[in-house]
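Ticket #4471: structure output looks truncated?

Reporter: J.K.
Steps to reproduce: submitted the chain below (94 residues) through the standard prediction queue, then opened the result file.
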Amino acid sequence: MFGIGMPELLVILGLALLLIGPKKLPQLAKSLGKTLGELRKATDDLKETISEEIDPIKDEIPDKGELEKALKKKFLEGEEEEKESKAGKGPRTK
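Returned output as attached by the reporter:
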């Protein structure tokens, strides 16, 4: 948990008990817990919203295999046209 071990955590709790006092410490812990819970809920909602917006876009993006195939095809077509133009046949028409 954030690189804090048990001895460090006990020191922090002891200082909080001394500084805040035994009567207000439970109230502070309760409000801190509620705040963290609300923050977690807001974060989860934000992640869900982003996921809903990105998922349709992900479906439109071709996968790696499709991209490699298209690039190889385009590259090979370019080489064929270059060979034909050097041979005097001119560029290939589609």
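Triage note (M.O.): checked the attachment and the full token line is present. Residues 59 and 80 are 33 Å apart (CA to CA).
Status: closed, working as intended.
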